[in-house]
Design brief:
Low-confidence stretches: 1-6, 99-106, 348-358
Strand content: under 5%
Number of strands: 0
Largest sheet: none
Oligomer: single chain
Structural class: mainly alpha
């Protein structure tokens, strides 16, 4: 029993069996993977999701209406926060809410408290059909309908600000369902289409970058993510790779299906950007079938009425978005996906009225709010740690006495992030902690961090490359016997990821180690490979130019400087290098 006696009798027996089977499979597949923290976090997320849904079953009609008010008020506040991020900047709630260097969070996109525009969009398309259904119900009952109408308009505005292509496709699918299957909602659907079109037109005038993002086809790198997920499932079709192991296994499996010329090659995908393929990769085909059944099975039960069709349309919307994103694999949105059906799918009169159950929905709302804020707070701690790490680096260059204090603050925020959510490999805190210890001069501590990461993430090139850098620095400090080990470790990283932008750093590190070993020809080749992977890599260009000038090959050095200036015409270092060599951006 959770939060009182739940209304089991209203849920079909077959669905209880499917849901129980899926949860049992999830818990079983939490064992056996090498990335235990991720498996534990993911198993906990699914467990909390199910408990929340069970706790919401059987709410009396009066409490269900209160839940509707709270839901519409909550989504309105979330959109208001997103709008504030557009007006006052993404640092509205926290100056370190997201990494400003991230390609996921462009300057134009809002994410509210969800930490990601994808999850924000998923929440909005899940709630919007319910808002439309509540509007239609109130109009039919001749009640005031301004509250759901206002919430609906705000939701559409929030979708425009999130600029999630998958969310817009999901919204379109939900509107088609309502127009075809719920005649009483057709007028509301037509009104929604008109408001959505007007919102996009206004958005194009205010933030043209968002409209451009919506009109551009999806990231071609997702095709590689899907191919890798399919191969992962082929390798273990019954058991799968294990719960939460997709990220950990991805780099190694990617090598089997991709070449350096493929879009997205060398990128360590966090998710498959397709919930169904990711379920098959992690849980095998049996787990994927149970996943689809327990999710889409929500469409097959419940009574009739506007609320029921609102829930169904929201499920269809998220189901379509899940073909391109991963809302069902992230706690803030996956919790809502099962909580709302538990509250609103039950036919009238089947809720069990139990003393003391009236205010259960308040507790559910509080717990759910904590779930939504947890990734946001964890992300804020993580970004604050990175900010202090950057500040410490600046202090080192300025010979400031504040260096130890800044590194201490960074380590403290890393630790807080890990306490809120164990290192689930989505940010790989250990790698960042190791880099920070390296910058602080603690080679032993950095080496220990990187070696621990290799045990957990043997497929991640960063771990091998970073550890190779540590051995290279030890060689530079006089421990020449470390050179072969440094080359071996960095070489292993490059065998895992020989191409792509993210391999440039490893090629540059290998060049540095080869210089120490006296292999200048091999070092120059490594620097050229780094520039091939990333034409605008200033450090690799500088290293190559320095080496070429020492070997009296000025013409080649000039070509490298010219190419760098062409890639980074406004970069001061690139301009200074070109000026020193007497070249311009034109041949």
């Amino acid at each position: 029993m959770v939060l009182g006696r739940p209304g089991w009798r209203a849920v079909p027996r077959w669905y209880l069996a499917v849901a129980g089977g899926f949860l049992a499979w999830v818990l079983a597949r939490a064992f056996g993977g090498t990335d235990w923290p991720t498996a534990a976090v993911r198993a906990g997320e699914w467990g909390v999701t199910v408990l929340l849904a069970v706790g919401a079953l059987g709410l009396p009609e009066r409490d269900r209406r209160k839940a509707m008010y709270a839901l519409l008020a909550g989504v309105s506040v979330a959109v208001a926060i997103g709008f504030g991020q557009m007006v006052f900047g993404r640092a509205l709630l926290s100056p370190y809410a997201v990494d400003l260097r991230s390609v996921t969070f462009t300057e134009e996109r809002a994410f509210s408290t969800f930490g990601n525009p994808i999850f924000f969009g998923a929440f909005l398309i899940l709630v919007f059909p319910l808002a439309a259904a509540e509007f239609a119900r109130r109009v039919e009952a001749r009640e005031r309908a301004w509250f759901p109408a206002t919430a609906g308009v705000l939701i559409l505005a929030g979708l425009a600000l999130a600029a999630s292509r998958g969310a817009f496709l999901g919204l379109a699918a939900s509107l088609v369902l309502l127009a075809l299957a719920a005649p009483r909602l057709r007028r509301a659907v037509a009104g929604v289409a008109a408001v959505a079109l007007a919102a996009l037109l206004l958005l194009g005038l205010w933030r043209p970058g968002l409209v451009e993002h919506l009109l551009v086809l999806g990231d071609p790198g997702r095709l590689l993510m899907w191919k890798t997920a399919v191969r992962m499932c082929e390798q273990s079709p019954v058991a799968g790779a294990g719960l939460g192991q997709f990220t950990q296994r991805y780099p190694c499996v990617q090598l089997e299906v991709a070449t350096p010329g493929d879009a997205g090659y060398g990128v360590n995908a966090i998710h498959a950007h397709n919930d169904y393929l990711e379920s098959a990769a992690e849980l095998g085909l049996p787990g994927a079938c149970l996943f689809v059944a327990v999710f889409l099975g929500l469409l097959a039960w419940g009574g009739e009425g506007t609320w029921v069709w609102g829930v169904r349309a929201g499920i269809v919307a998220v189901a379509v978005q899940s073909l391109f994103n991963f809302p069902l694999h992230t706690a803030p949105t996956m919790s809502f996906v099962w909580l709302l059906p538990a509250v609103f799918l039950l036919p009238a009169g089947t809720s069990l009225r139990v003393p003391g159950r009236r205010d259960a929905w308040w507790l559910v709302a509080v717990v759910l709010a904590a779930l939504c804020m947890r990734p946001f707070v964890r992300s804020s701690y993580f970004q604050m740690a990175l900010a202090y790490q950057d500040a410490a680096g600046e202090a080192v260059r300025a010979n400031s006495p504040r260096v130890p204090a800044l590194y201490g603050r960074a380590m403290g925020y890393f630790d807080r992030a890990l306490r809120i959510m164990p290192d689930d490999s989505r940010t790989r805190v250990g790698f960042h902690r190791g880099k920070m210890l390296y910058e602080a001069g603690d080679l032993n501590g950095a080496q220990a961090e990187f070696m621990a990461d290799l045990d957990r993430f043997p497929c991640y090139p960063e771990g091998w490359g970073n550890l190779g850098v540590i051995y290279g620095v030890r060689a530079m400090n006089g421990e020449t016997a470390m050179l072969p080990k440094a080359q071996e470790l960095i070489g292993h990283a490059l065998r895992l990821r020989p191409g792509g932008r993210e391999a440039a750093s490893d090629w540059n590190s290998l060049g540095n180690v080869r210089v120490l070993a006296g292999n200048e020809v091999g070092a120059l080749q490594s620097y050229r490979e780094a520039l091939r992977c990333q034409p605008g890599f200033v450090e690799a260009a500088s290293n190559a130019v320095r080496l070429l000038l020492r070997r009296h090959r000025r013409a080649e050095a000039q070509r490298i400087a010219r190419d760098l200036l062409a890639a980074l015409p406004d970069d001061p270092e690139a301009r200074a290098m070109a000026r020193a060599l007497g070249v311009s951006s034109t041949p």
